[in-house]
Design goal:
mainly alpha, 2 domains, two-stranded antiparallel ribbon, 10 helices
Length: about 190
């Protein structure tokens, strides 16, 4: 009997907590659609490269704001678990001050150089990602992390290849471009 009241409460609670349900469904939709993504994404991005409307930045920025009103990145943190941000010298300086380490020691402990000759974190998930998906160096995090997922930047089409990769990593970016696809009816 008590079990039934608990599930009834959960149902009522979920009815009133729409933002949480929407965020959860965006994240769930993302992971459910992940297998179909490469083909769908590739086709849409190819089309977009040829036929992007002149107001593409405005459309994507509007969708970015809409989606991020519904998604809490702390519910997912897939970017921190799977993507290696490019880390610049200024990021190393900021992180080393925060961690009270010499820059060379920070690099030795946490970083390696990738094929593009950028520093990246040696491990995934990010070594500074906590179990609750919070970042232990949030105030000092690298610029690439600060700006992620880049859907609020100007000249969106200059970053389209980056967005294509991020669509396959980030539920919010996936949702922004999915809504864009539906809005443009492609």
């Amino acid at each position: 009997m008590q079990k039934k009241s608990i599930s009834s409460f959960a149902f009522v609670f979920s009815q009133f907590n729409c933002e949480m349900v929407m965020a959860d469904s965006i994240i769930n939709r993302f992971f459910a659609a992940k297998e179909k993504m490469p083909k769908q994404t590739s086709d849409f991005i190819k089309w977009l490269k040829k036929a992007a409307p002149s107001n593409i930045d405005d459309l994507i920025h509007e969708l970015h704001d809409e989606v991020f009103d519904e998604v809490d990145c702390l519910d997912c943190a897939n970017c921190c678990k799977t993507v290696g941000p490019a880390i610049k010298d200024i990021d190393i300086d900021r992180l080393s001050k925060h961690l009270k380490l010499k820059p060379s020691k920070l690099v030795e402990l946490y970083m390696e150089i990738d094929e593009e000759q950028d520093y990246i974190f040696r491990t995934h998930p990010c070594p500074f990602l906590c179990d609750d998906n919070y970042c232990s160096v949030y105030e000092s995090r690298p610029k690439a992390c600060r700006e992620y997922p880049h859907t609020d930047r100007r000249r969106v089409m200059q970053l389209i290849n980056l967005h294509k990769r991020n669509i396959e990593c980030c539920p919010a970016v996936f949702e922004v471009f999915e809504r864009l696809r539906l809005k443009l009816k492609k």
